[in-house]
Amino acid sequence: MGVALGKRYEYDGKPTMAMNKVQLETKKAIDRKIASGHYAFEEVGCAVCGSCEFEKLAEKERYGLFMPVAICRKCGLVQTNPRMDKQSYSEFYRCEYRKLHNAAEHPTEEFFQSQRERGKEIYNFIAKAIGQEPRGKLVAEIGVGAGGILQYFKEMGNEVLGFDFDEEYIGYGKKMGLSLEIGGIEKLVAAGKKADIIIYCHVFEHLLDPVSELEKISSCLGAGGVLFIEVPTIKGIHSVYNSDFLQYLNNAHTYHFTMETLDNCMKKGGFEIIYGTDSGVAVFRAGKKTEGHANEYGKTIAFLKSAENSRAALINFPVVKLRIFRAISTIISSAGLTAAAKKIRVKLTGK
User: Fold this and answer.
1) Which of 160, 170, 166 lies closest to 119 in space, CA to CA?
2) pTM
3) Which of the pair, 333 or 55, is modelled with greater confidence?
4) Which parts of the chain are beta strand (E)?
């Protein structure tokens, strides 16, 4: 079966973006593990509707790593499938994730402060969603990194607790005085604490079983508690990724949402949206589970194909300009207006 979005998405091992030395060495390590079978892949049914009817969209991602991506024909959820199994992902996050995606071997002050700035934005977004500033709350974050987001919530008078699988980043956050632990949502469940706010900032798209995760989140939320989620959205590629879906794709993501398919997933897990934007930022509260879902396949595949066609047209625009110039120039020159032809050439080509 071919790749629906075209030959550019077929696997060739070539990155589509500039990579530094740390990233290139990390990519080589991942390539070796995939080629040897050390990193194993598994096929799974759709997380939202359970279907196994998929259409292949891509075989690679931005770094040139092997990553099959498909769209579910029954609900339109785009997902990495087949994907690495749980054991492989665990090793990847422990050994390679931060080096590949942060382009650095170790946590830095710059990274921590960038997280803190995002924490301020999230704080204000949640305040708008719930109608008041969140102060004196228990705020938990899954996939906390170095803890910069929680640092801002702590400064605003909240108790904070964060979890991540990267020991070095957790260690960095602890040195900053934050309460951080190695692990994920299971650690929060085991702690038996009820959070007022739970944050998943660019984490939900990494999960292997988002619906099961939502059930655990629900058990950890106190009365009136809210869940903040931020994901990169497919329809955000025009503003963030130069209309290039291939630049959007990266091997750490298992699910690739639109706001509509995210809402389908959240409803199945028993959450309803309070406030959200098309850019993939939203606040949810626990509600009733909903089994029914809208089928977004037609809209999503049409959007992706249109984006790819538009990108190709934009790349070819200089060629089109040159052809137009040559045609007009020929007509004008044949009429004896060579000077006018030169002016048009300068206007169209800048030369």
Assistant:
1) 160
2) 0.86
3) 55
4) 41-42, 54-60, 66-72, 78-80, 83-84, 138-142, 159-164, 180-182, 195-201, 221-230, 255-256, 271-276, 281-286
How far apart are the C-alpha atoms of 237 and 13, rounded to whole Å?
22
Q: Is 187 exposed, middle or buried (0-12, 13-18, 19+ CB in 10 A)?
A: middle
Tens of pLDDT along 9-43? 999 999 999 999 999 999 999 999 999 999 999 99
Asked if 65 and 34 count as a contact pair (C-beta separation under 8 A), the reply is yes
| b/e map 98-116, b = 16+ CB within 10 Å | bbbebeeeebeeebbeebb
Calpha distance 66→36 (Å, rounded): 13
Tokens 């300068």, located at residue? 346
- The pLDDT-based confidence of 324 (bands split at 50, 70, 90) is low
From the number of C-beta atoms within 10 Å of its C-beta (0-12, 13-18, 19+), residue 191 rates as: middle
* Sequence-distant contacts of 37-40: CB under 8 A, at least 24 apart: 38/88, 39/84, 39/88, 39/91, 39/92, 40/84, 40/85, 40/87, 40/88
The structural domains of the chain, ordered by start, are 7-103 (no CATH), 109-230+259-295 (3.40.50.150), 316-349 (no CATH)
Q: Which two tokens stand for residue 79?
A: 């997902």
d(CA 166, CA 164): 6
Side chain identity at 177, as an amino acid letter?
Answer: G
